[in-house]
Amino acid sequence: xxxxxxxxxxxxxxxKVGKLSAEELDAFLxxxxxxxxxxxDETGWPYVVPTWYTWADGGFYIVPRxxxxxAKFMANDGRVAISIDSNEAPYIKFxxxxxxxxxxxxxxxxxxxxxxxxxxxxxxxxxxxxxxxPTLNEPRWLFFVTPKSMTSWQGTDWAKRYKHSEWxx
Length: 169
Hints:
This protein is an alpha+beta fold. 20% of the residues lie in helices and 34% in strands. The protein has a single domain (16-155), classed as Electron Transport, Fmn-binding Protein, Chain A (Pnp Oxidase, Chain A, Roll). The protein is built from four helices and seven strands. Strands 2-1-5-6-7-4-3 form a seven-stranded antiparallel sheet, with helices on both faces. The model has no long low-confidence stretch (mean pLDDT 89).
């Protein structure tokens, strides 16, 4: 298994380079980065949507609005992919393919409320409840995405496998 390496002296701007450790990944996924979730629409085409998430219990909780097209797509076909990255160098990138399972169909007052409250505070800070509370009467789904594969990368450099010199060319 590849581990991350420190950037050489004079190149600290690159950051730590390589795969995130389990602890680094947990810390990154606990931040308020928006995820891009890809699912398959009713015709089998990819459908990508930005979404909030909560990383817990070894997977991702997702709370779509009742009328979200993409929630129906996930309910019909649970195969999804998630991509999350940081906005500043040295960049962190994460992607996973997984299986989305319906935990709750659209409802008011379900388990999703506690998760959505945590999300609102993480993404919007102290104003999160001001956003969430006025909409608690609106039904929402609750999904859990179980990762089947996960890939992470940090730092500003290329992995050896992408360099032509590693191919003997």
